[in-house]
Design a protein that fits this description.
Keywords: Coiled coil. It contains one helix and no strands. With 130 residues, it is mostly helical. The chain starts with a helix and ends with a helix.
Length: 130
């Protein structure tokens, strides 16, 4: 009986040690689980924060793209108006240049007609002198 009792006590001691070890491992597991959950939550919050920043950046980019398109549209309208004005001014310049050339040609013809009698007179006078 002593032998059995000694074995029984060793068995009980071993079971108590195993229970204590189990309790320690259970506590360590609970700590690790809590740390894991906290890390998972912080990663999730970080991910959500980054997603919200990305959405905000996308919204800002979309707004800037719309603004840029409006600015380009206005710029194009100004450029088309300026080009039309330049084309109109070039046409007016060509018309005025043509009028000036015509006027100068008419002036030369008029001067020739005005000077022709005088030149004939001078030629006649010079022919009589010699």
């Amino acid at each position: 009986m002593v032998k059995e009792r000694g074995d029984w006590e060793k068995y009980c001691d071993r079971l108590l040690r195993q229970v204590k070890d189990f309790e320690k491992m259970k506590a360590a597991l609970a700590e690790e689980k809590a740390a894991f959950e906290a890390e998972r939550k912080s990663e999730e919050w970080g991910r959500e924060f980054l997603k919200s920043k990305l959405r905000a950046a996308e919204d800002l980019l979309a707004k800037e793209r719309v603004d840029w398109k409006e600015i380009c549209k206005k710029d194009n309208q100004h450029m088309y108006a300026a080009r039309a004005k330049i084309t109109d001014l070039e046409a007016q310049n060509a018309t005025l240049t043509k009028k000036v050339e015509d006027f100068e040609a008419d002036k030369e013809r008029f001067e020739v007609r005005q000077l022709q009698p005088f030149l004939l007179y001078v030629a006649f006078y010079l022919s009589k002198s010699y």
